[in-house]
Amino acid sequence: MNAPASYETSDSIAYFRIDRPERSNALNGEALELLDQALDDAAADPDIHALVFEGRGKGFSSGYDLAPTGAINIKHQTMLQDWARLQRNNDRWERIFSFPKPTVAKVHGFALAGGLELALSCDFVISTDDARFGHPPLRALGVPPFMLFPQTMGHRDSREMLLTGNSVSGREARGRGWITRAVPAEDLDAAVEEVLASLRAMPLDNLLLIKRSLLRADMIVGHRAVRGIGVEFDAIAHRTDAAGAFWDRVDEAGLTRALRDRDEPFVEWSTGD
């Protein structure tokens, strides 16, 4: 069986690639363990100036793996186990947000739920203009445990996304200031390389000091504390009637049908056109 992700380095850049195209690059336990190791390796390597996250196949990542037998299914764990799992995930995204070197998310297709959290935790988000950014599990499965949205999206946009589960295109995400750049699909590689060329040219000491100063400012204004507040609310939300009904529907009709039923009543009125 192929590994669900890979790590490699080239010309002072590290690359972490999610490789589960048959599962829309959903993040399972093994992929997350490999991600943790990639963070260790890239941080310790004195030749690495930046870390790039990308996905193989049709999209960046659809989020956590919702397989009915998986750990995210609350029927398989107590509230305290769920809380601990959510906290581990939060610590992982916080580690990316606070990574000592620049991080880049290279997004095509979709960045949803946990995939959105991964992308927005990076310093740079370079996307195709037709990619989709959103958190649809909010419609049945709780609260985003990593609450970085108010500081990355702003007051109105974060409320729209969180209270509707709505998603937007890469083009609209750029217009709203959620991401760094949105380009046609055929230009994505070149757009990412333009950023990486600048990061390669910067002295590593400068990159480390600049990133540290940005994180110091983030700490002073209290953003890190805000990013951590979602864990307890998500653990509670996973015990609501709506969440229980979703997993019952998964058992009855399968995951694909349950997701379709969840999303059918909603109108995606932010199209990015």
CATH class: Alpha Beta
Distance between the termini: 41 Å
Overall geometry: globular
Tally of individual helices: 12
Strand order of the largest sheet: 1-2-3-4-6-9
Structural class of the helix and strand makeup?
alpha/beta
Largest sheet: 6 strands, mixed
The name of the CATH architecture is: Alpha-Beta Complex
Percent helix range: 40-55%
Overview of this protein structure:
This protein has 273 residues and is an alpha/beta fold. It has one domain (5-188, 197-263): 2-enoyl-CoA Hydratase, Chain A, domain 1 (Alpha-Beta Complex), CATH 3.90.226.10. 47% of the residues lie in helices and 15% in strands. The chain has helices at residues 29-44, 79-97, 114-120, 149-153, 155-164, 170-175, 188-201, 204-220, 223-227, 230-237, 241-253, 255-263; strands at 5-10, 13-18, 50-55, 103-107, 110-112, 124-128, 132-134, 167-169, 181-183. The strands form 2 sheets. Strands 1-2-3-4-6-9 form a 6-stranded mixed β-sheet, sandwiched between helices. The chain has a 3-stranded mixed β-sheet with strand order 5-7-8. The chain is globular, with a radius of gyration of 18 Å. The model has no long low-confidence stretch (mean pLDDT 93).
List keywords for this structure.
alpha/beta, 12 helices, 3-stranded mixed beta sheet, 6-stranded mixed beta sheet, 273 residues, 2-enoyl-CoA Hydratase, Chain A, domain 1
Summarize the structure.
The protein has 273 residues and is of the alpha/beta class.
Strands, helices and their partners?
Blueprint: E1 5-10, E2 13-18, H1 29-44, E3 50-55, H2 79-97, E4 103-107, E5 110-112, H3 114-120, E6 124-128, E7 132-134, H4 149-153, H5 155-164, E8 167-169, H6 170-175, E9 181-183, H7 188-201, H8 204-220, H9 223-227, H10 230-237, H11 241-253, H12 255-263
Parallel strand pairs: 2-3, 3-4, 4-6, 5-7, 6-9
Antiparallel strand pairs: 1-2, 7-8
